[in-house]
């Protein structure tokens, strides 16, 4: 298992790689200021590990704008190329509602 941290002013991500899956634990505010560096760190791990499962854990996300939708959608596309699966875990009711309105519940499993 490998754990990596990336910190931004308002957002951080801790990534675990283990047995064919990548888990990204997001924390803080996911907005246009933080999304790029978070996206790059997750993508780097996906490219290196070629997982069959990507879990995006939103438990500690306090705010999300449309950049969060883009982050999930882009990771879904990457996982499709790998014939893998995307799971969104621990999203707050508000974040789940935003994601459902964007149609992400048709692309990813929600836990």
From TrEMBL:
Organism: [Clostridium] cellulosi
Record domain STAS: where: 11-111
Example GO molecular function: anti-sigma factor antagonist activity
PROSITE patterns recorded: STAS
NCBIfam families per record: ant_ant_sig
Domain of life: Bacteria
InterPro entries membership: Anti-sigma_ant, STAS_dom, STAS_dom_sf
Stated family: Belongs to the anti-sigma-factor antagonist family.
Name assigned to this protein: Anti-sigma factor antagonist
């Amino acid at each position: 298992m490998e754990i990596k941290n990336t910190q931004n002013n308002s957002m951080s991500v801790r990534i675990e790689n283990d047995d064919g899956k990548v888990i990204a634990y997001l924390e803080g505010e996911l907005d246009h200021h933080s999304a790029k560096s978070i996206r790059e760190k997750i993508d780097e791990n996906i490219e290196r590990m070629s997982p069959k499962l990507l879990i995006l854990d939103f438990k500690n996300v306090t705010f999300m704008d449309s950049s969060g939708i883009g982050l999930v959608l882009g990771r879904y596309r990457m996982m499709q190329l790998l014939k893998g699966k995307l799971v969104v875990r621990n999203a707050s009711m508000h974040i789940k509602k935003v994601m459902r309105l964007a149609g992400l519940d048709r692309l990813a499993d929600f836990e």
